[in-house]
Amino acid sequence: MTMTEGDATGDPLYFSVPPVFQEIDLDGDPEERVRRSFERFGAALEGATPEQCGSLTLQQEVMIGELLEQGAIYAATCLVRTEDEPPRLSTAQFTVCVREANLDGERPLMALADGLRVPGSPREVAFAEFPAGRAVLVGDEADVHLPYTVDGRNQPQSHRVRQAQVVLPLPGNRRIAVFGISSQCLPEWSYYAAMLDDIAYSVSFTAPSEDGGSPITAVLG
Hints:
Elements: E1 3-5, E2 12-15, E3 21-23, H1 30-44, H2 50-69, E4 72-81, E5 89-100, H3 108-116, E6 124-130, E7 133-146, E8 157-169, E9 175-183, H4 189-202, E10 216-219
Parallel strand pairs: 1-10
Antiparallel strand pairs: 2-10, 3-4, 4-5, 5-9, 6-7, 7-8, 8-9
Helix pairs in contact: 1-2
């Protein structure tokens, strides 16, 4: 079991993540995290040069800084090779962020969904029921300009990045947990979306039974 601790008096949040995702240590020593990430990219990317692995590691560090500003309590990266011929690298990022929210009123989720909608944009907003309660679903796409390709080559490109989020109110309706997945590898999108759905179904605010595996626990302050 992996635990990210906040205030010990906070509410626990349990969820399970597929083993294909590798957790990013958000609170660890940056130098140690950089070393481990560099080694991990080198092992996963056959033939990658030290410069390519270093570029990917740097991009990850920039991303971590942004996640911490957004209230991230958990982050993980999926780094796999497809079964194509020849195989290619496919990546996705999974995050959990906790944000303040004031969900008062008779239909608080409806108000939240209305706030997430952007007129004229391709963003989709819907609702779904999960064991942890009713949630807002958000789907979006955006063009992202990166100086490197997904395997670290110095070749500026514009990528279409797709992301999906499951927004669940926490007990008390004063905060929301945002479970999100994003990827520029669109051919595998249905695979990643199914992973997010499985994670959302695993979310609980009470300790699961012992035979339910080893969930990740975030104690929220």
